[in-house]
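User: quick one - fold this with phosphoenolpyruvate bound?
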Amino acid sequence: MIINMSEGATEQEIQHVIDRVKEAGFQAHVTRGTERAIVAAVGSGGRRHELEALAAAAGVAEVVPIAQPFKLVSRQVKPQRSVINVGGVKIGDGSFVVIAGPCSVESREQIFSTAEAVKAAGATLLRGGAYKPRTSPYEFQGLGVEALRLLTEVREHTGLPVVTEVMSTEDTDLICEHADMLQVGARNMQNFALLRRLATVKKPILLKRGPSASVKEWLLAAEYLLAGGNPDVVLCERGIKTFETETRNTLDLAAIALARELSHLPVIADPSHGTGRRSLIAPTSRAAAAIGADGIIVEVHPCPERALSDGAQSLDFNGFRQVMQSLAEPLRGPSPQGSKVDRAAAAD
Ligand code: PEP
Ligand code: MN
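Assistant: Sure. Structure tokens for the protein plus phosphoenolpyruvate:
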């Protein structure tokens, strides 16, 4: 349930409502907007009728049920958009953030040269996998702690905050020592033990959408993080499984707009995993920007043909520069006056 406070509600009245929500057996989460505060009562096993009765409390405008199964993630609880700070880089503040780097950290030379190249081209965050979720156990699994150390070094060298994947609860503390943002990979979106653990860390989380997850399931996975105490979550659409076989996944662009409509959390796109083809990175990145994404995460490698993972979808440095240039171009050319009429005439 949501207790919408009235515009003139005092701090005391808000505090009273918080106390009553707790007394009724729920957790209270407060969002303070510029005009009014919202107290969300979440949890199970509380006494709902006691919340409904709060409609009569001083300073309360209305008590309404939360329409969606995800609560803290929903815009009903927090209408204003969240801005997530990743080592000083803001995601969700209206800018378009580019996270770039190799699928996997492979060597000092590889990660340093890539970090320098993507920084020079305009990326503000570096990605690089240390622990890799590979479909086959015979494929490269990542350099582990050695990669984490390289990421720390390269951050010191370039100033780029780093994003890397966490696959298990045991690695969490170690990864927190080295990374500025922890990625939950698509395959782990519903690893609830991992989500509960990450809810307790003081680092922002990049939560990828599972390959077969609905938008609702994705937002409920984010709810685990917020409900457990970590409000710093960025959602990432990375493509879903469909009948299409020409692309690795189907980048669900509408889901980006939908997630931003339903939730206050920033949403970015991963056109690399979303398509599996480097030729599609530029157009889908532009499409993501057009549909309202808060940024993209893309794979870049000094020599994609030698990459130990995801070479086919990785851009080389030149390719990445071209993607950055294409993002800077206007989405449409200037539309001459009367062009609509001209198009209609042409169609006749
Ligand atoms: C990755 O980012 O390299 C990765 C494995 O991503 P996903 O979980 O989206 O497949
Ligand atoms: Mn990858």
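One thing worth noting: The chain has a mean pLDDT of 95.
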